[in-house]
């Protein structure tokens, strides 16, 4: 029997379960992604109902065997993050990335802190694209999928702004020996890649702004790990169908569909 007491966590996703319960996916500090049943949480008198909100720092207690645990307690640990508009959509995107990329009950304290820092930046109105690109790259870095930002993966030489490079998510950058005949999606100039490295290394200071090349690069980097299934949060952003604020949702985070998490 596993027992987890007063564990710092955030709700990533909820969905209804039976008449009054919910299935909840949590990002926890010491246990990584946790899946749990919150029994009776959708009942009108449930004390847990107001606690199980996305972007709300929680302390949770769980118990059980296997991957699906019982959520016994959830209480606010600090004031929640109040996000609206594009910043709410962006935070939902972060949640979906974590749901798709993390293995259940795999301790990832660095990812918990990375997520919390991203929410702080979103609430502080920092550069939105810079926040997203940094989160994406650092998430891949925490998972062991990142590449060297500064060198040619084949020669080991520093990137040159005047050269063109092909990007391979598994290895990194490779310089072209002759000018390209067409601009493929995985083709970048050295100047674009050097700018991207600057965005990542100066993330704490917010001095560099991410551009369209950075978005294109990170989409290619994430694709092998996300698979062919589209991200719903991107569709929601395009259609503008997410709740304007968290209070507009019955159980915040439920605007995302259930996902088959990695075991």
Q: Could you characterize the architecture of this molecule?
A:
This protein is α+β, with helices and mostly antiparallel strands. 31% of the residues lie in helices and 22% in strands. The protein contains 6 helices and 8 strands; from the N terminus they run βββββαααβββααα. The protein has helices at 85-101, 109-123, 128-142, 190-201, 212-226, 232-239; strands spanning 2-17, 21-28, 32-38, 58-64, 68-76, 164-168, 172-175, 187-189. A hairpin with a 3-residue loop joins strand 4 and strand 5 (68-76). It starts with a strand and ends in a 24-residue tail after the last helix. The model is unreliable at 242-263 (pLDDT under 50).
Distinctive features:
alpha+beta, 263 residues, 6 helices, single chain, 22% strand
Break the fold down into its secondary structure elements and pairings:
Blueprint: E1 2-17, E2 21-28, E3 32-38, E4 58-64, E5 68-76, H1 85-101, H2 109-123, H3 128-142, E6 164-168, E7 172-175, E8 187-189, H4 190-201, H5 212-226, H6 232-239
Parallel strand pairs: 3-5
Antiparallel strand pairs: 1-2, 1-4, 2-3, 4-5, 6-7, 6-8
Helix pairs in contact: 1-2, 1-3, 1-6, 2-3, 3-5
